[in-house]
Structure formats: structure tokens, C-alpha cells
Amino acid sequence: MSITATHFLKRSLQILALAGFLLLAACTGGPKYSARGGPVVVENGQYRSANLRPYKVRGENYRPYVPDIGDTLTGTATWYGHESGSMTATGERFDPNAISAAHKTWPLPSIIEVTNLDNGRSLRLRLNDRGPFVDDRLLDLSKGAAKALGMYEAGMARVRIRFLGPAELGARPTYAAASPQTEPAQRYRVQIGAFAERANAEQVREALTARIDERRGLYVVSLGPFEGAQKAELYRQQVLAAGYFDAILTRDE
To answer: 197 pLDDT exceeds 50?
Structure first.
């Protein structure tokens, strides 16, 4: 075989190998969602000292701490999106469409990995705010993070969070790198609470001009229905502000 033919054969095999590698990578893929520019852990990064001091909210004392790298917690996550333009606990302007979250005691700012245990989606994001100040809630996600994790419509999800380390102080926000999706015309209710005694349900109904439905022996108080999760979330935030911290979004069947 001539030198030219041998070179051509080797070059062809290299191209085929490269094509096979690229095809394999495309098939295996990865998470459906990621963050453009990726929130990165800063080696020897600094946390805001003010956000490591004990504090008190609604009569409850909270003591922030720095967990070990890789530590995990499991619990319920909700999302919030009405504070557009306000400031987070780190002094950054809150952008509901960015990828961020709030936690009561982990250090700020830091990078965590959030996994939606209901659908398996995972996302690295920036922890830059405090909350949610409800006993059974672990994490409050921005609207953008909730969409990326596939829990925007449901309003809450069971999640696992993993601590990765400190984040850059004052970093630019990151956004979900996903194809724009049109929210389906789904109707939602704001479920304020479920009560065994009708008298208790009546008190809440009168206070919030809500409605009562009897389901499985309980008196369920709710507002709505509303067109779309975003509109319903605005009313849920009003209910939370009124002191009814167990309010959730439910689909109107």
C-alpha cells in the first residue's frame, strides 16, 4: 500500500472515531436543564459574615452554619416570584427568572445542587437569600429554578439539596438554558388549609373571603380557581403574608 493510501486510511479512521464519539455524547446527553455560565464554587471563597449571625423571625431563632462539602438535606421546596426588584439577604437584587434559592441556615452566598425527587431533575444554583420561614419547608426556589426543575406548576416538590461550597460575592445571575415553553392553560386554586372542625374553616373563610369544600371528612378552604400558576402564586403570597403559612397551589380538577 502506498504512503498516500496509508495516510488516507488513517485519516478516515480518525474521522470515523471522532464521529462515533460525538454521536455517543449526543445520545447519552445529560440533564435537560443547565445554567448558562454555570454557578461556580469559589476556592477559599468568603461568606457574608452578617449572614452567619443568629437571627429571629416570627418568634423562631435560627443559627446559620457552614456544612461540610457534600452534606445533604431532604425536604419540601416551594417557589417564590413576586419580589422582583427587591433585595436578597446577600444584598443582591432579586430576579425571579434567574436561578437562585433561599435557605434558613446554610451560608450565603453558596452553591448547592438541588434534585427534584419527584422527577429526577437536578440543578446547580446560587443560594443567596433566607427562607422559607415555615417549619415543614426546606427551600424556596426562584421562579426560574422552579421551572428548570419541573415543579413550577405544582408549586412544591420533594427535593434533596447538596452543599458544594462558597459562591462568588456579587456574581451576575444565571438563567436556565432551556427552550422557551408556553405554560399550559391550567387552572389552580390556593389551598389555605384543611380542617377537621367546620367552625375553624369558617373563621378562615370569613377572614380571607374564601370558599369551603368538604373532602374526605375535612373542610378545605381555598381561593380561586385562577388561570395559570403565576397568577395563583400572587394570591398564595398574599395568603402567606396574612399568616396562613401552609397555603399551597393545587390544580383545579
So the answer is: yes
